[in-house]
Amino acid sequence: MASKLLMLLLSLLSLSQMTLDAYIQETNLGGNLFLVNRTYVLDREYVPQDLVAPDVLKTNGDITMRREAAEALERMFQAAQQEQGYTLQAVSGYRAFNTQSAIFERKVNNTGSAKKAQRLVAPAGTSEHQLGLAMDIGRKTNTDLNKNFGASPEGVWVSQNAHRFGYIIRYKQEWTDITGYAYEPWHIRYIGEEHAARVFAMDVPLEHYVASLQEAVFGEYLLAGGSNP
Fold first, then answer.
1. Does 128 qualify as catalytic in the annotation?
2. Pick the catalytic residue: 68, 83, 184, 220?
3. pLDDT tens digits for 173-184?
4. What is the rounded CA–CA span in Å between residue 168 and residue 205?
5. Between β-strands 167-171 and 134-139, what pairing exists: parallel, antiparallel or unpaired?
6. Phi and psi at residue 134, to the nearest 5°
7. Is the pTM of this model over 0.85?
8. In this predicted structure, what is the pLDDT of residue 168?
9. Which listed CATH number (3.40.50.1360, 3.10.20.740, 6.20.20.10, 3.30.1380.10) goes with 35-208?
């Protein structure tokens, strides 16, 4: 992992000559790289302002996500159909704070403890779904959200091609200790094509990518500031 992070850091130094302002915009709330987990928690009042219903096959008509992510999802679903004949289906997109809270409480009741539930469902405020940048997806014939999706032809295609459309598989099996969540091959997160291509190539979790980007951008900035007091 250390060698991967070193390579990532060197690669990020040339990331489209990203400026400090651009980095801040990307990683602040509303940016595609905004990090949400148990450490970085969203306020209960946060609702994205540009939620739309993606024009894809959906399990219900209430599924929405942010416009840029929705348009990318449409392109990905179209490519899956045109390139391989796979029909993907959107299962769950944006979730409000209260909705996530109810889902988490149900999981606590089902598993018998909050600790067990937290491996499977994000507590309210810690879910990427509240950002409007995440989507749970399934197959046309099976929309159950389980590990079997990852081994299906559709799931394998998504894992190998989602980055082309700005998406990453957010919770891989080998990243559980870092992300805090069990393997979820159905959960994809939009971060933009350029960033997604780099995360895919380096095979690192978003936590490591954002931290390395911060070091690449702010490290150079702080050095420059230190030489000109």
1. no
2. 184
3. 999 999 988 899
4. 9
5. unpaired
6. -120, 150
7. yes
8. 98
9. 3.30.1380.10
